[in-house]
Specification:
12 helices; four-stranded mixed beta sheet; alpha/beta; Double Stranded RNA Binding Domain; CBS-domain; disordered C terminus
């Protein structure tokens, strides 16, 4: 559990992701994947292919006509991945930068989980400091809405055209409900596990009959303009909602808050996270090794900042020595500067990237060992 935002952004993502998740091959049929997602209550799943990993979400099924004949490789989205040691801030940045809801977590080539915006928002549930963040500063506006008597097909089209998952429903300008992509998909697109004898497997009706009033959630989560981010985060978690609407008196919609908008307070730490890293001894041709090494150093120091937030810069000096023919031996010295001195580490070997890994691991251990001890409080003697 984190008590401050600074503690949360430094936590490893594996500490907050759920243990249950689904992985499918890209040649699976939509009907099977949709059936599993509905039965497990999940919104996304990892897709594996011969190339990169990817993700599929419930909203991606909105444009599927025949789920039993459609393969996942027609609609899934390739994404990058993150290691379980990536901190929450790194993951939040990737989700927002790439405009994705979630990202696979991979260790040693194996998928071990899914990190989503919702997981991060859930971890913000107990951070009292969020009570100082006005929600109105994060609200997204204007938003598209539908009247109570409009068709479900209109809601689906709006979602597809605008890339959204929530459409508020209004009556005389007043919010009365919300239609979600999840509700449309699970109502009108039949998964393989829910078909009956004589029914075409995965058949969907040619149209989306009915009005939005028939499938909308009549109790959307709403807050006033005075609400804080903490109120919104807790409301989403406690009521099991995926979006919150800010309204004024009378029910007129002012804007929407989804997990994406609520990540903003965490992203304020991005500028602080950019740590100066100096690597001396690499030539201009070693650009690839330099970029990898800098990223690894920032990651290990970022994780150690919960113990040593006073680290101001890190430098690595590389020395080369020729021996055994054309092979080069590397000797690396690392130094992390802090307010009260410096923390040193060394490593050497024949493979430069492997030596970098050893140096970074040693430096990380040294940083953790150097955690300042909490000052001891002396009990005051009472006078007799």
């Amino acid at each position: 559990m984190s008590t401050t935002l600074r503690e949360l952004v430094s936590r490893e993502i594996r500490e907050i992701i759920p243990s249950l998740f689904s992985v499918f091959s890209s040649d699976e049929k939509v009907s099977r994947v949709l059936g599993v997602l509905k039965e497990t209550g999940a919104y996304e799943a990892v897709i594996k292919s011969e190339g990169p990993l990817g993700l599929i979400t419930v909203r991606d099924f909105l444009d599927v006509d025949q789920p039993s004949r459609t393969r996942i490789d027609r609609i899934w989205r390739a994404t990058s991945s993150v290691p379980p040691t990536a901190n929450v801030l790194e993951v939040a940045e990737k989700l927002v930068r790439n405009n994705i809801r979630a990202i696979p977590v991979v260790e040693a080539g194996n998928v071990i989980g899914i990190a989503s915006q919702v997981d991060i928002i859930t971890a913000m549930h107990d951070i009292q400091g969020l009570s100082g963040y006005p929600a109105k500063e994060l609200v997204r506006s204007p938003i598209w809405s539908l009247d109570l008597d409009e068709g479900i097909s209109n809601a689906r089209r709006v979602m597809l055209d605008r890339g959204i998952s929530h459409v508020p429903v209004v009556e005389l300008g007043r919010l009365v409900g919300v239609v979600t992509a999840e509700e449309i998909v699970h109502t009108f697109i039949t998964p393989a596990s829910k078909t009956t004898l004589g029914e075409r497997v995965g058949r969907r009706t040619s149209r989306f009959p009915g009005m939005v009033s028939g499938i909308m959630d009549p109790r959307p989560l709403t807050v006033s303009q005075e609400a804080t981010v903490l109120e919104v985060v807790r409301g989403l978690k406690d009521q099991g909602k995926s979006a919150c609407f800010m309204t004024e008196k009378g029910g007129r919609i002012l804007g929407i808050l989804t997990p994406r908008e609520l990540l903003a307070p965490l992203l304020k730490f991005s500028a602080e996270r950019e740590l100066p890293v100096y690597i001396m001894g690499l030539s201009d041709e070693d650009f690839y090794e330099r970029s990898i090494a800098e990223e690894k150093i920032r990651r290990i120091v970022g994780r150690s900042r919960r113990f040593r937030p006073d680290i101001t810069e890190v430098s690595v000096r590389i020395k080369r020595s020729q021996s055994k023919g054309e092979r080069t031996r590397y000797h690396l010295k690392g130094r992390a500067l802090s307010a009260d001195g410096q923390i040193n580490a060394e490593a050497e070997g024949w493979d430069l990237l492997q030596v970098f890994d050893e140096l970074i691991e040693t430096l990380g251990k040294a940083l953790r060992r150097s955690k300042p001890e909490a000052p001891r409080t002396r009990r005051r003697r009472s006078r007799r």
